[in-house]
Amino acid sequence: MSTSVQQPPVSNPRMARRVAGASFVGTALESYDFYVFGTAAALILGPVFFPEQDALTATLSAFLVFAMGFVARPIGAVLFGHLGDRIGRKRTLIWTILLMGLATGSIGLLPDYDTIGVWAPVILTVLRLLQGLSLGGEWGGSILIATEHAEPRKRALYASIPQLGSPVGTMLVSSIFLLLTLLVPEVMTGWGWRIPFLLAFPFLGIAIYLRLAIDETPIFREATRTRAIKRVPFLEVIRSQPVAIVVATASAVLGIGSYFLMTTYTQAYGTDTLGLSQATVLNAALVGSILQLVTIPSFGLLATRIGSAKVVAGGALGTALIAFPLYWVISVATEPMYIAAIILGGILPTASWAALGGLMADIFKPATAFTALSFAYSLAAIVAGFAPSITQRFGIATDGAWWHPGVVLATMSLVTVIGALAAVRLRARLAESEDPLVRTA
Quick one: which of 291, 387, 369, 349 has its CA closest to 84? Predict the structure, then answer.
C-alpha cells in the first residue's frame, strides 16, 4: 500500500537549464581530453612512443595503452561514485574534471621514447590510467546532476544534453588534428602532437568555473535531509540491484563502443589499410560530429515520448542490420564515399548513445545512482575500450577481410538490444517502488 510522500524541493527552471549547460560543457571538455588520446593513438602515438616496432604493431601498442584508460574506469566509478552519493554530485564532479585536465595536459609535457626510452610508454600508460580513473565518475555524475534538476517529464531530454559533449569533444579534436596535418611529418612527430594535449590546461579552467556556478541537486539535498545516504553505496548497489547493473552495462556497449570502433579504429584502418589521407578520416569524424548536434537532442525528444530504453533498442537493432553493408562500402570507398559512409553509419548508433543516460537514470535508485550509473557505464566502457585493439587483431588474423569490423559492430549492437529490452521491464518494476526518493525522482 503506497503512502503519500512529501515532494523534495525542486530546482527552478533557470537553474535546471544552467546545470544542463554546465553538464554539457563539462562533458564536452572531458570528452575532448579523453578522445584526444584515441585520435592520437590512431595517427601518431605509435611512432612517437613505440618507434622500434613496425607500423601496424606500433599502432596496436598505442591502442592497448588507449584501452588501459577503460580498465581504470571501474575503480574510478567506485571511488567517485562513493563520493558522489555521500558528499554530493557537484563537489565530486569538480574533482573528476580536475584530475582529467591535469592528466591530459601532462601527456603534452611527456618526453618521447627517443629521450627517456622505455619510461616514456610507461609514464604514458600511467597518465592514461589517471584519465580513465577520472572518467569513471564523470559521465554518471553529469547525467545524474542534469536529470535530478529536471522536471520528470523532461528527464530523458535533459539526460541527452550531456551526451552532446561527445560530438563536441570529437569536433574539437578533429579540428585541431586537421590543422596539425598541415605540419610536415617531422614536426608532427617532434612537437606538433603535443599541442592538443596541452590545450587541456585552459579548457580545465573553463570547466571548473562553470561547475562552481551550479547548485547541488534537490534529490541529493533531500537524501541528506532524510538521512537516506548509504554508508557504502557500491555494496548497496551490488546487494540490491545486481540485475540492473548487468542490464545497464549491456545497454551501454553500443553507445560507447560504436564511437571507438567507427572513429578510433576506422581512422587507423582507413589510413593504414585503405590508404586514405589523415585529412579524409578526420573530416569524416568532424562532419559526423556536427550532424550529432541535431540527432542527439532529436533522439532525446523521442525518448520523452516513447521511453529511453525503446530508443536505445531501436538504434541498436538498426545498427546490427547495417553493420556489414557499412563496412563493405568503406572497404571499396573513394574518399567522398568513405566520408558519407561514416556520417550515415553513425546515425543509428547515435540513437543508442543519446538515450543511454535516460535509460540508466530510469533503472537505478537515486540514493546510490551516482555509483550505479558510473560503475555500469565503466564496465561497458572496458568492452568499448578494447574494441579497437580487438578489431585490429581480428583484422590481422583475417588478412584485412572487409567484414571483420562488421562482426564487432553487429555483436555490440545485439548485446545492447537485449540489455535495452530488459531495461523496459526494470523501469516498470522500479516505478512501483515505495521508496520516497524513487517516487519523487
Answer: 369
